[in-house]
Each structure stands twice: as structure tokens, then as C-alpha cells.
Amino acid sequence: MSARSYLYVPGDRPDVLAKAAGRGADALIVDLEDAVPADGKDAARKVVREYVTAAPVAGSGPVELWVRVNGDGVAPEDIVAVASPSVTGFCLAKAENAEEVRAAADACAAAERALGLGDGAFLLAPLLESAAAVLDARTIAGASPRVSRLQVGEADLRAELGVTLGADERELLHVRSSVVLASVAAGIEPPVGPVSTNFRDLDALRESTLAISRLGYRGRACIHPAQLAVVNEVFTPSEEEVEAARRLVARFEEVTAAGSGVFTDESGRMVDLAVVRQARRVLASAR
Predict the structure, then answer these.
(1) What is the pLDDT of residues 237-268, one digit of tens each?
(2) Please, which residues bridge with residue 64 across strands?
């Protein structure tokens, strides 16, 4: 089941890391990049290494564990330094092209061999933080079988584009939609939604999270634990939605078994396979 919420946690704060798994996030992103000052990278690696070494093996703990590694050619070094069986994958900061993704994939393979893990144990999630990266999103998404999803780093992107967001955030609608399209075309999971730096205005967070969910996003990154409950709620279908989806799928299976591909539901709507695919997504997201 895909994570709904991803909480960024600074990699140089063992006190914060110790409490992070109990904050309510489905996944943690332990950050070696922006949250760590330039002269603290080596120390942060040691902290993260100790943390992930003590964490449960991936898939057996309460949360997914990701590590955001540095860009500018440093990602392979970071990956080898902090790889552990507890880590689901690595978020590649400032991923610019397929070559960088493949270099990170090679580092994952080397780490797997060193740890005695199976091939493909570590996943990759490139962060698109420049215009060039967004325009090359489909190529980046398909650069390695390890790429499980994309994410847009909107703060850096806005700075490069000179974009100032309005209340409805329509200024980045094209970018957000294009990354969804690239993800679907590449056959990977839906992208993770961008962070909101205002963790006090939860009403605004809800509205923007609802908006990106309508675009096809199925989760969102958070910078503060206060944001998690809102994000989890938005990406969790209600009991009524789940039950309606269950009835629709069951009815569709009945009519297809009888030789028909369409039917009319209780509200008078024509239902075909496209509608059923949406209903199956709702069921897959049920908790």
C-alpha cells in the first residue's frame, strides 16, 4: 500500500530522529541535503548510519524509511555510506538527468552486494527541482527499474522560474500535472506531492492537498508533524467511498461474467472499465 504522508526529518538531529517514527507519518525521509549545513554532512552521515542500522528491516517496521541524499554527484557516496536493510530507498535531490539516476542505481547495487541483499532491494525517488529536470521527467522516470516515483522540489523550481504562488497555486498546475503524466507514461507510482512550508495554516494545507489529489497524486511530503493528520485524511477514502467502490466493482464483475462490458449504476451513471479502474484505486487506498 502506497504511503500517504512522507515526513522530512533532519539527518543531523538524533533527538528528532528518535521520535520521528511515532509521529503518524506513513514514511520518513531522513534528510542529508537541505536540512544539514554544508560543514555538517560527514557528521550527519554518521548519525543517519547509526539510526538506520538500529531501525527495523524494511517492510517490517511501522513506517517506510527513505533517505534524501545530496545532488551534484554526491548521491552515490551518500548511498554507500548510509545503506542499510532498513532503508526502502533513496530520494535523489536535484536529479537533473538519467545519467545521475543510473549512477545512483549503480551505487544501490554496490550497497546491496556489500550487505548481502537481493538485487533491487533499494528503490529510487528522483526529486525534480529545475526546469530542465521537469521537462526531462519521463526520461528520468525510466532511467532505472529502481525508480519507483518522482517528486517535485518546488522551492528550488519556483526560485529558478521566478514563480510566486497565489492562493490556489495555479501557477504550478502545469508542472504538477506534467509530472503525473510522466509517471503514468513510465509505469511508475504516482508522484509525491510537494511540501507546504506553512505548517500553521492547516485549512490551506487541506485545500491544496485536495487539489493535488484531484490531479492524481496519492501522497504528500510534510515538513512538520502537525501536517500529517490532514494529509493522511485527504488521501484516505471514507467508509462510504470504499463501500460504493466495492459495490461498483462487484456489479461490474457480475455483468462482465454475463457478457456485457457496461452497466448503469444506482445513480443512473453509465459504468465501464475506466470508471471501474477508478473504483479499484479507491479500494487499493483503503485502510
Answers:
(1) 988 888 888 988 888 888 888 777 777 877 77
(2) 27
Q: Which is it for the CA torsion 112, 62, 154, 176, positive or negative? A: positive
Which residue shows C-alpha cell 539510526?
51
Residue type, 138: R
Interior angle at CA 41, CA 225 and CA 103, nearest 5 = 95
Q: How many residues does this entry show for the chain? A: 287
**pLDDT by residue (tens digit) across 138-189?**
999 999 999 999 999 999 999 999 999 998 999 999 999 999 999 999 999 9
Strands 123-128 and 89-92: parallel
In DSSP notation, 171-197 reads GGHHHHHHHHHHHHHHT-PPPBBPP-S
Q: What grid cell was written down for 26? A: 506513513
pTM for the model: 0.91
121, amino acid identity? A
Give the span between the Cα atoms of 133 and 191, in whole angstroms.
14
CATH of domain 5-234: 3.20.20.60
List, in sequence order, every residue forming a beta bridge with 192; answer none if it has no partner: 151
Domain with CATH 3.20.20.60 in the chain: 5-234
Q: Could you give the CA distance from residue 202 to residue 224 in angstroms, rounded to a whole number?
A: 11
- Exposed e or buried b per residue across 200-211, where buried means at least 16 C-beta atoms within 10 angstroms of its C-beta: eebeebeebbeb
The closest of 10, 46, 2, 7 to 23, measured between CA atoms, is 7
Average pLDDT over residues 204-226: 96
Which of 192, 237, 196 is CA-nearest to residue 219? 192
For residues 148 and 253, give the distance between their C-alpha atoms in angstroms, rounded to a whole number: 30
